[in-house]
Every structure is written in structure tokens, then in C-alpha cells.
Amino acid sequence: MKLFHSATSPYVRQCLIAAHELGLIARIELVPAAAHPIDRDRTVVATNPLGKIPALITDDGTALHDSRVIIDYLNELGEGDLVPRDGPARWSVLTEQSLADGMLDAAILARYETALRPEALRWKEWMEGQLEKIASGLAELEARSMHFGDRVDIGTIAFGCMLGYLDFRFPQLAWRETRPNTSAWFEWFGGRDAMVATRPPPA
Ligand SMILES: N[C@@H](CCC(=O)N[C@@H](CS)C(=O)NCC(=O)O)C(=O)O
Prior knowledge:
mainly alpha; 8 helices; binds glutathione
């Protein structure tokens, strides 16, 4: 399998962690990609018309995206239990994944706002709106994380990568200061081998 990859993408990281946890990592060849919303990477567009990463080409040549589809595919391939099959746990974990990904979407938009958008075109209230989404999500995570225990599934993987991205790109948010449950949980989860092996490079 080939995975379009960047070491700084939190969505790519989720796929890599799933592959590590499922024992599939050795079967994945990483293809360096420079996804960018304006300067589009044509090699990625050929596999994912949106030009976004991650995108996966399976061994039979099928193109898969986005991260949620890829993780679901890997979970099935590896006969794993990262996605609960049924019952209330399934809907709860899928909702957690959705929340973490939504927080990441807000964080990526906020990042593009400062890293890509010309200063004269920036919109302060819009940026604040994205940061508020992250803050509300962190409040929900603080309530949930005390019940996580040693869960490793698509919900906790997505939250772990979201927190890792905040540490990487938004250290000034200092999210740990007012969120002791999340902080204690991430202390453990962030030390797992798969998390350590996929840490983004120094900012
Ligand atoms: N919903 C997508 C989001 C992927 C995404 O936004 N990836 C970023 C890199 S972290 C990207 O490719 N950005 C380029 C663009 O927006 O065109 C997923 O879960 O895979």
C-alpha cells in the first residue's frame, strides 16, 4: 500500500497510528506529499481530487480517502477492533472521532489563516471563531477523558493526534493548564509506542 504522507499532518498521523496498532505499518510505503490548499500537489490530486492528505492506494490500486475511510479500511484489513462493530460504543466512538476531527479542521484553518493568508486579508473574528470551536471541544474532552481508561480506538487515536497537533502548532493555547483529566490521560496515551514513533518534527 502507498500512503501520501507528511510528518506534520495530524490526519496522516491517525492513519499511521492505526497501522502501528494493527501491525500493518511494514506494509505501508510512505509517499512524500506537499498538500497545500492553493499550491496543489498534482501527484496527490491524481489520487484524491481534493488534493488533501492522507490518501491511500491499496495493493489492488484502489484510491481511498479521507483519514476516516483509510482507518476503517486498515481496521478491516488487520481484523482489528479500533472501530466498535455495534451497540452504543460504536456511536459514541464515532462521535468522538468526529469531534476530534472537527477540532483539527478548525485548527488547520486557523493555522492556514496565519501561515498562508496575506496579513491584509486576515479576519480576526473568523480566527477567534475557529479557536472557540477548539475550546468547546476541549471542554467536552475534559469531561470524557476521565472515563477513557486504557482505550485505544479511533476515538482516542483521533483525540491523541488532535492534542499532539495543538502542542505542535498552538503551544500558546497551553491547554493542559485548565484541563487536568485530559492532561493526565494524554501523559499516558502520548507515551504509547505508536504515538512516539509518529511525533511531528520540531516546529
Ligand atoms: N477530512 C480530511 C482532512 C485532511 C486535510 O485537511 N489534510 C490537510 C493536511 S493536514 C491537507 O491536505 N490540506 C491541503 C488542502 O487543504 O488542500 C481527512 O480526515 O483526511
